[in-house]
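[Q] Does anyone have a clean structure-token version of this?
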Amino acid sequence: MDRNAPGLPWQGIASIAVVIALCWVLPRLAVRLGGPDGHWTAYLYQYFLGGLVFAIGLVVIRASRACDFRRPGEAMWFGALAGGYVAYALMHGVVTWLAYAVPFRGVK
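[A] Here you go.
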């Protein structure tokens, strides 16, 4: 086979297979961890699958050399992207927990 022939390399095919497998596994894992009617199921599903898509985006950013850590400030912005995702997920988790943990007696 010619190395310069167009086509998808085996790494690309393996990556696509892993993503498809994770798209099948992650929702089932979220239901198993949160229960089919649990209030954490949607949260787990959202951040498991969203995290997968976000991680793929970060890999594409690095692979395309859109973010070069040798340039000033690039590592900081890359870290801000990753840290922002984690911080938002934690904030959403705390608000979700508070919504179910703190009793609400209604408005008079």
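[Q] Thanks! Anything notable?
[A] The radius of gyration is 20 Å.
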